Amino acid sequence: MVERQRVRSDGRQAAEPPLLTAAEAGGYGLRQIVELTGKEPEGVSGVVPTEDGWLVNVEVLEIRRIPSSADLLATYETDIGPDGELVSYRRVQRYARGDIQG
């Protein structure tokens, strides 16, 4: 992790943890979900900053089927803290690869 320091408006260094970039937070979220679920990752579909870190959505392959358009995928929402550690996660959606999502 690249360490960056926050600077207060008066120019002094703020006493806060290092900041993560969106890409770093996405990588942490993806790796944590793969480790916890053992599922094959499809990728990161969203990264949103929060007051206490990042909200990262990760898509995984839940069940492989033939044809592949019938594969079952899932979206996991992860809460990543400012230090890159997983705070919480939950599955928020499950869908067939061939389904049109809106």
Short description:
This protein is α+β, with helices and mostly antiparallel strands.
Model description:
The chain contains one helix and four strands; from the N terminus they run αββββ. The chain has one helix spanning 22-37, and strands spanning 40-50, 53-63, 72-80, 86-96. A four-stranded antiparallel beta sheet has the order 1-2-3-4, with helices on one face. A hairpin with a 5-residue loop joins strand 3 (72-80) and strand 4 (86-96). The longest helix has 16 residues, at 22-37. The radius of gyration is 17 Å and the shape is elongated.
Layout: helices, strands, pairs:
Blueprint: H1 22-37, E1 40-50, E2 53-63, E3 72-80, E4 86-96
Antiparallel strand pairs: 1-2, 2-3, 3-4
Features of this protein?
4 strands, disordered N terminus, 102 residues, alpha+beta, elongated, single chain, four-stranded antiparallel β-sheet
- Name the helicity range: 10-25%
Note the gap between the termini. 35 Å
Oligomer: single chain
Shape descriptor reads: elongated
